[in-house]
Design goal:
about 90 residues; 3 helices
Length: about 90
């Protein structure tokens, strides 16, 4: 993936801004975890503005992998963020 660092930075920023730590993108459809949806209720206007950008980033990953994926963001013991694409 040519833009791996850019994509990783984007999802870390999304996690910091909206608390999204997991998502799934299957059959060109974005799915967010129910616990993430509860957090987004309080940030709905800001997230609405970001949603199209999120779908574009997910579509970029989907096109590169040629299949659906799940993405998880975790923090390690040294407070570094890890973005895992499964």
């Amino acid at each position: 993936m040519n833009n791996l660092k850019h994509i990783e930075d984007y999802f870390i920023k999304l996690h910091r801004s909206f608390g999204i730590s997991e998502l799934s993108y299957q059959n060109r459809r974005l799915e967010l975890d129910e616990s993430n949806m509860k957090l987004l209720v309080f940030a709905s206007e800001a997230f609405d503005e970001e949603f199209e950008n999120l779908v574009d980033h997910c579509s970029m990953i989907y096109d590169e992998l040629q299949k659906g994926f799940s993405l998880k963001i975790r923090k390690d013991v040294n407070n570094n963020y890890l973005v895992n694409v499964i």
